[in-house]
Design goal:
7 strands; binds nicotinamide-adenine-dinucleotide; globular
Length: 255
């Protein structure tokens, strides 16, 4: 029997086979979890559906997290099909590409709000939908990055959104702890994905990991997946409101 046998959860944020959410989903599947997946739009459905089917997904649903009605529909469907829910993976972020390259002070109001909406607020919205279904308690994990704590070149508005995401993690954890619902953030090292390709200077960030991270490399999707598996499973039953680093130790060295 796997660590996640008998547990059911939703994974938000698979775009393709490089997605961190996919690394997490594979670990969850290997540990015996039953999974639901969402995809952002029809173009991504073509990529997500075969991946989801390869891990025997129970549900594959459309969901643009900027739309409250989409979020409502996802949880209505989960309630109808499953009746309850054990865990959620929130691995979603978006910012305008120019804002991940230009000087931070040039960020326009609507782009700032867009990054905050998709990259931070959606954790609140997803948790609000999930919590009533977590009748026996549950675990929610979101993905963050060190740019929330340090001024990382080019990360800009996304760093501000990740700071809000980490604070949201703590407030949600404080609210939901008495219902046995844990909320944690995983701060991953830089990994080549669709989203990270929008951040200017990714190559330099990866080179810096090889040179300066204690493990002299960055981490893989599988390694982030294993840390997520820990936080989503009963192994982390006493852990909530934490930012857990899975970044080859980079966060604590003097760069
Ligand atoms: P990715 O591009 O594979 O995943 C980002 C996902 O966000 C995609 O699936 C995309 O469809 C989804 N998304 C964007 N807007 C959405 C919306 N409106 N509604 C629903 N979904 C939407 O890239 P990734 O690197 O795997 O990113 C996953 C998470 O990991 C993000 O929160 C990212 O900030 C975080 N993260 C990434 C790195 C890295 O270096 N790749 C490091 C630390 C944290």
């Amino acid at each position: 029997m796997g660590l996640m046998a008998g547990k059911r959860g939703i994974v938000f944020g698979v775009a393709n086979e490089l997605s961190i959410a996919w690394g997490i989903a594979q670990q969850l599947h290997a540990a015996g979890a039953t999974l639901a997946f969402t995809y952002l739009n029809e173009a991504l459905e073509k990529r997500v559906r075969p991946l989801a089917e390869s891990v025997d997904a129970d549900l594959i649903l459309p969901c643009d997290l900027s739309r409250d009605e989409d979020i409502d529909q996802v949880f209505a469907e989960v309630e109808k099909q499953w009746g309850s829910l054990d865990f959620v993976v929130h691995a979603v972020a978006f910012a305008n590409r120019d804002d991940l390259k230009n000087p931070f002070s040039q960020t326009r109001r609507e782009n700032f709000l867009l990054a905050m909406d998709i990259s931070a607020y959606t954790l609140v919205a997803v948790t609000r939908g999930a919590a009533p279904l977590m009748k026996q308690g549950g675990s929610i994990v979101t993905l963050t990055y060190l740019g929330s704590q340090r001024a990382v070149p080019s990360y800009n508005v996304m760093g501000v959104a990740k700071a809000a995401l980490e604070a949201s993690t703590r407030y949600l954890a404080a609210e939901l702890g008495e219902r046995g619902i844990r909320v944690n953030a995983l701060s991953a090292g830089p990994i080549k994905t669709l989203a990270s390709s929008a951040v200017s200077g990714m190559k330099e960030k990866l080179k810096m990991m090889d040179e300066r991270a204690p493990l002299r490399r960055t981490v893989s999707q599988d390694e982030v997946g294993k840390s997520a598996l820990y936080l989503l499973s009963d192994l982390a039953s006493g852990v909530t409101g934490e930012v857990h680093y899975v970044d080859a130790g980079f966060n604590f060295v003097v760069a």
